[in-house]
Amino acid sequence: MSKQPESLPLEAMRVDKWLWAARFFKTRSAAKEAIEGGKVHHQGERVKVSKEIRVGMQLTIQQGFDKKTVLIKGLSAQRGPAPVAQQLYDETSDSITRRELHSTQRKLHNLARPEHRPSKKDRRDLQKFKHDNDQQTQRTWSYHDD
């Protein structure tokens, strides 16, 4: 197989190679695993690793908690710097607002957690509290048995 000269623009390329070039994944094998795991969709359907993509297609990519819907603007056979890679796609406005909403919900959910682990004194107080309440519960149950 002969390689295509660099001067000719690409008309189509494999989705795993594009995801790597657009810097969604660090390696092509990571992109391949994500595709095989059902994390990449085109028109609501899972794509295969060898799927040929073209400019104008829309992909939905799930990375961790984030689910991005992107419109392909360009193709590149080489992985370049991040600013160049970001020019290969546009994220839809719906996708951006949905991701921001989920992000704020996750942040608010984490506010309910304590800021630090309980100290030895805190643990002793918790154990004492539980022990005292267990004894009160047992006493109340024993009164109802009479």
TrEMBL record:
One Pfam family in the UniProt entry: S4
Ranges for region Disordered: 77-146
GO biological process: cellular response to heat
Domain RNA-binding S4: 13-76
Bias (Basic and acidic residues): 112-134
Keywords, comma-separated and alphabetical: DNA-binding, RNA-binding
Superkingdom of the source species: Bacteria
Molecular function GO terms recorded: DNA binding; ribosomal large subunit binding; single-stranded RNA binding
Biased composition (Polar residues): 135-146
Family statement drawn from the similarity comment of this UniProt entry: Belongs to the HSP15 family.
Name this polypeptide is given: Heat shock protein 15
